[in-house]
């Protein structure tokens, strides 16, 4: 089986869509000698696989996620996964994609398959359902700390954290009805409280605005930095809603 090198954290948005589609989704990565607790689903032969992230949490769900591509048609891959995963198996179609799922101990395994040219592609995911409840309180505390420092009525609509290659990353989408400037000022205050300095702030120039969707034409991007940490926030408004897309990375101790 060919294993392709881990993909960058920029795939988080795609992963969020996968999780929303299958409800319970997670990440599979290459097992280590100390990592025997997570189940390792048996995959069909002759797949090209790639790790999306070795360790992540999406909206409170600890997970592992692996992608795959094959020159076999989706119908063939679905039958192959039905045989390799075993029974009992939940078999359904979600958002036009075939989804297979089964519980294994305190985990839930999900496979999503769709057409890709003459072949197929998809994801194999494992979610740690047993750990979800223990992570919930910690996640709620972190969310509350963020919301308390954001404009009133702000909602964290989605978030994802990941650790790989000595770096911890976070992706978060915040929505509210306040102006872009109010969100900009609040974000600057809270990032300063957390030890970050604003490096620069940019807006699209005239040429860029012509190629961007209307709601992004006036968006602002803020870049922050702190020792061993970096963050970026894109603030845009569409209709009566403002969205803040926040990404940060932290170099873990021992890798600095």
Characterise the protein shown here.
The protein has helices at 12-22, 74-85, 129-148, 180-193, 206-211; strands at 2-4, 48-58, 61-70, 90-94, 97-104, 107-116, 119-128, 155-164, 167-176, 197-202, 220-226, 229-238, 241-251. The model is unreliable at 1-36 (pLDDT under 50). The chain has two domains: 2-130, Alpha-D-Glucose-1,6-Bisphosphate, Chain A, domain 4 (2-Layer Sandwich), CATH 3.30.530; 149-251, Mog1/PsbP, alpha/beta/alpha sandwich (Protein Transport Mog1p, Chain A), CATH 3.40.1000. The protein is 25% helix and 43% strand. Strands 1, 2, 3, 4, 5, 6, 7, 8, 9, 10, 11, 12 and 13 form a 13-stranded mixed β-sheet that branches. The chain has five helices and 13 strands. The protein starts with a strand and ends in a 5-residue tail after the last strand. The radius of gyration is 20 Å and the shape is globular. By secondary structure, the protein is α+β, with helices and mostly antiparallel strands. Keywords: Signal. Residues 1-34 form the signal peptide.
Quick rundown:
With 256 residues, the chain is of the alpha+beta class. The protein has five helices and 13 strands. Keywords: Signal.
The secondary structure category is alpha+beta
Number of strands: 13
CATH class of the largest domain: Alpha Beta
Portion in helices: 10-25%
Q: With helices defined by DSSP (H or I, 4 residues minimum), what is the helix count?
A: 5
Mean pLDDT: 78
Keywords:
256 residues, alpha+beta, Protein Transport Mog1p, Chain A, 2 domains, 13-stranded mixed β-sheet, 13 strands, globular
């Amino acid at each position: 089986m060919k294993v392709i090198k881990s993909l960058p954290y920029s795939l988080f948005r795609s992963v969020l869509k996968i999780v929303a589609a299958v409800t319970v989704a997670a990440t599979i990565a290459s097992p280590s000698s100390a990592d025997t607790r997570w189940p390792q689903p048996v995959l069909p032969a002759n797949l090209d696989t790639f790790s999306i992230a070795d360790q992540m949490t999406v909206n409170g769900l600890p997970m592992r996620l692996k992608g795959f591509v094959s020159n076999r048609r989706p119908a063939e891959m679905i039958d192959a996964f039905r045989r390799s995963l075993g029974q009992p198996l939940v078999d359904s179609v979600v958002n036009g994609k075939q989804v297979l799922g089964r519980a294994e101990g305190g985990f839930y395994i999900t496979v999503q398959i769709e057409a890709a040219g003459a072949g197929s592609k998809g994801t194999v995911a494992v979610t740690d359902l047993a750990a979800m409840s223990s992570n919930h309180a910690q996640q709620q505390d972190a969310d509350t700390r963020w919301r308390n420092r954001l404009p009133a009525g702000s909602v964290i609509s989605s978030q994802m954290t990941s650790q790989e290659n000595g770096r911890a990353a976070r992706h978060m989408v915040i929505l509210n009805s306040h102006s872009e400037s109010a969100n900009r000022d609040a974000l600057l205050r809270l990032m300063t409280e957390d030890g970050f300095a604003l490096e620069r702030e940019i807006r699209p120039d005239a040429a860029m605005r012509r190629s961007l969707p209307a709601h992004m034409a006036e968006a602002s991007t803020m870049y922050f930095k702190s020792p061993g940490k970096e963050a970026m926030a894109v603030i845009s408004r569409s209709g009566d809603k403002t969205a803040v897309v926040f990404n940060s990375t932290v170099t873990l101790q021992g890798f600095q």
